[in-house]
Amino acid sequence: MSFASFVVVNSPSSMWQKYSVVRLAIPFMTGICGASLLMEHVTWRPDMLFVVMCCLLMVAVVCHRVTSHAPLFRHLFATSIFGAFLLVGATIYIIRYNDVATAVHPQQAVFRAAVVEAPQPKRRTAAVELTTTDGAHLLAYLQTDSAHSPLTLQRGDTLLFSPLHTHLTCPARRDSVAITPADTSALARYTASLFFRGISATCYVPSQRWSHTSPAQRDTTWNDRLHAYYAHSPLDSTTMSMVEALTIGRREGLSRQLRNDYSAAGVAHVLALSGMHLGLLLTLLNFLIFRFLSYEWRQRTMLAVIPLLWVFTYVAGMPSSLVRATVMATFLQVGFAFGRQYIVLNALALAAILMLAADPLQLHNVGFQLSFLSMLGVALVFKPLFLKSSPSAKYSKPIIPKLLRIVRPCLTLIMMTVSTTLFTAPVVAYHFGQLPVYSLVTNLVVPPLVMLLMWGAIAWLLLFWWPEAQAVVAHGLDVLVGVQNAVVQTIAQWPAATIQLQPTAIVVLLYYLLLAAALLFLFKYIRSKSLTA
Predict the structure, then answer these.
(1) N or C: which end of the chain has fewer CB within 10 A?
(2) How far is the C-alpha of 210 from the C-alpha of 81, rounded, in Å?
(3) Please, which residues have CB within 8 angstroms of residue 305's CB and are 6 or more apart in sequence?
């Protein structure tokens, strides 16, 4: 039997029968990866790929009608579906790649664009992400002086500017116009990362060459309102900066030294709203559901949690990393609600297909990879290994012993952290070239503190009508932030806190193959023990 038949054929004896969406996601993502690897070496014609894809789908339709009469047609049907989804992934990647690569002409003199994200301060400039009237995305470095301050720009403001230099980010075109005489490997990786974020070019704009033509309305979003509320609160400045980072995603108040300490300790991800924060929120909500609700109400309530996740994402300002994690968490929660392991994996595969169909360049995005792998770790390691489920059981019973009610959720968070770290550590080392030695130790301590900080911040906001209780919660937040920062700074100062390690793609692939083999062995062992029990 061919690999395509193994993936696609609906064989009753095959475990792949349950993973219908996973079987479609494999060729789809393979097509995207193949097109990505060959994009700079092969001239692609999307129209021809589309014609071949339509032919394969027609073959699949014909074979489906005669599948019951000739087993050979079943394999031909599987191969046709596999090839069609392979070409779908390759085609949408090529179209998106060409759109981003040709969106900006390097000789264009004047641009009119709107601010997409708040400016990020640099040494002598401010990095501002813009969208032009033609739909192209740019990263403009606006010079700062006494008369022009780009840091006052906000999302939605309109600029008119004439760049002095334009640097294309497309890997196949960036050498045509360069802002530096020598293109180093670090610059190549950086420009490629910008391209895969959908940014077509970077440009440098002197202060005399840009003007603010249309200011946006101020303080209209919930994110801005909460920022203003935090600014006028009696919270300590350090506590306020940390609470802002964990609830609305604003990190302007965090010092550079504190960020470096969090990076050295291996918990820099807690300072940026992402799947980790959503996972903590989702884990605690699910724990409350399983702890206080009967079995009949659990499924409905777990589905009702999904709107709460989107409300949190909206209030946080809809950052791309959190939106991506919320989409994945939505499908994952649907799978958990129905209590079937294969539904969880199918839901995660469907989320990946939809997100990559909308923007296939996300496959290269570090945030997408970490979000997907962390959710995959929860689905493959945390739930089946730490939660013992059986088809005859009405609900999952934790393997962990019955401890105190306060200890059990913390232990659950620790287990979830270990599960996600197993899947994300190689990707972190591959992209960032360093691996925090004590990251596992830090991740055993910091996530519970982050959880308490997030829920404490929500309680502090909800108690706006009771100043005395709000002051008590604020004091608790000060203690939690002090403890968390002290732990992180202590671990960051330990000897050999970080090691320079940048594995190759082959090494990372071998790691995940070994991890998959180990998980298969554990699953078979657990299954054999459950059958003999």
Answers:
(1) C
(2) 52
(3) 282, 285, 286, 289, 333
Cβ neighbours, 10 Å, residue 123: 5
Place of tokens 């950086």: 190
Look at the chain and count its residues: 533
Query: b vs e for 447-456, b when ≥16 Cβ sit within 10 Å of the residue's Cβ?
Result: bbbbbbbbeb
Nearest Cα residue to 100 out of 204, 205, 197, 202:
197
Return d(Cα 170, Cα 177) in angstroms, integer.
11
Amino acid, single-letter form, for residue 267? V
Q: Mean of the per-residue pLDDT values for the chain?
A: 78
**Secondary structure (DSSP) of 290-347:** HHHS-HHHHHHHHHHHHHHHHHHHHHTT--HHHHHHHHHHHHHHHHHHHT-HHHHHHH
* Cα–Cα distance measured from residue 132 to residue 106, given in angstroms and rounded to the nearest whole number: 14
Contact status, residue 16 vs residue 4, Cβ threshold 8 Å? no
Q: Which helix (H) or strand (E) holds 505?
A: helix 505-532
**Helix, strand or coil for residue 319?**
coil
> Where is average pLDDT lowest: 65-74, 111-120, 350-359, 457-466?
65-74
Beta bridge partners of 125: 143
Residue with tokens 């202590």: 490
Burial zone of 290 (CB within 10 Å; 0-12 exposed, 13-18 middle, 19+ buried): middle
Please tell me the pTM assigned to this model. 0.77
Please, what is the Cα angle at 83 between 82 and 84, to 5 degrees?
A: 95
The rounded distance, in Å, linking the Cα atoms of 382 and 405 is 19
For tokens 């504190």, the residue is 258
- Report yes or no: 389 and 379 within 8 Å, Cβ to Cβ: no
Query: pLDDT tens, 466-505?
Result: 888 888 998 999 999 999 999 999 988 888 777 887 888 8
Q: Which residues pair with 168 in a beta bridge?
A: 201
Pair 318, 118: CB distance under 8 Å: no
Q: Terminal CA-to-CA distance of the chain, rounded, Å?
A: 35
State the residue for tokens 């470095």: 141
What DSSP string runs through 85-108? HHHHHHHHHHHHHHHHHTSS-TT-
**Angle, alpha carbons 393-394-399 (nearest 5°):** 60
CA distance 485 to 242: 10
pLDDT at 295: 67
* Side chain identity at residue 184, one-letter code: T
